[in-house]
Automatic annotation (TrEMBL):
The chain crosses the membrane at residues 24-43, 55-72, 92-109, 129-150. Residues 163-174 have a biased composition (Basic and acidic residues). This is Putative flippase GtrA (Transmembrane translocase of bactoprenol-linked glucose). It is found in: Membrane. Belongs to the GtrA family. Residues 163-236 are annotated as: Disordered. Its main location: membrane. It comes from the Bacteria. The lineage of its organism: Bacteria, Bacillati, Actinomycetota, Actinomycetes, Pseudonocardiales.
Amino acid sequence: MVIGKAPALGSRIVRDLLEKYRELIRFLVVGGIACIVDNGTWYALKLTVLDTSPVKAKGIAIVVATIVSYVLNREWSFRRRGGRERHHEAALFFLVSGFSAVLNLVPLWMSRYLLHLRVPEVDWLAQEIADFVSGSVVGTLVAMVFRYWALRRWVFPQARERTSGTEARSEESTAGRAATRRVEVSTVNAVNAQRRQPGVQVGQVRRERRRPQRTTTRAARRRRKAARRRVRGRGR
């Protein structure tokens, strides 16, 4: 019995954890997508038109990734949150993202200009490894932690469902059907509770209630037969 219940218990625990940390999981997925966009744009610029300005290339890449991140976070990660006007929400999002972009650039700047991990002080491979670790790993992690905290606190502060008109009508219809079903179930339970007696099943109660009706019918038939006999005796 315990072994049979283990898979169901495990799936319920996993489902509860996914529900509890749904926003965080979605935020991390969006962060991964934004990271791919960020690095793809950064390397595309750094290895072509901005090969002498890696920090500027990183800044442009961050702006592009921020736009992608805003759309996905608003429409998916924090879809159940809101509480602000659209333009206020967008302004706060880009303000938070701008500060997180500064945090993202700080490790890269320190690697290049404080630690001098650049050509000709180091070879090209060491420079690229240092750029990746400082800009794409350390900087991204620091910025991601700050962005998640700031988005929940200031940009999407209230937990509420942001739905379209069709979705809202569908949810209202579903809620109405659920409420009707609850009323029906409570009514049936109340009727069954009135019918039940201690130690007596519902079927027994029904049979006991039908017996007096059958007895009454038989007695009426006997009275009618007796009346007919009396009428016949008088006729003779």
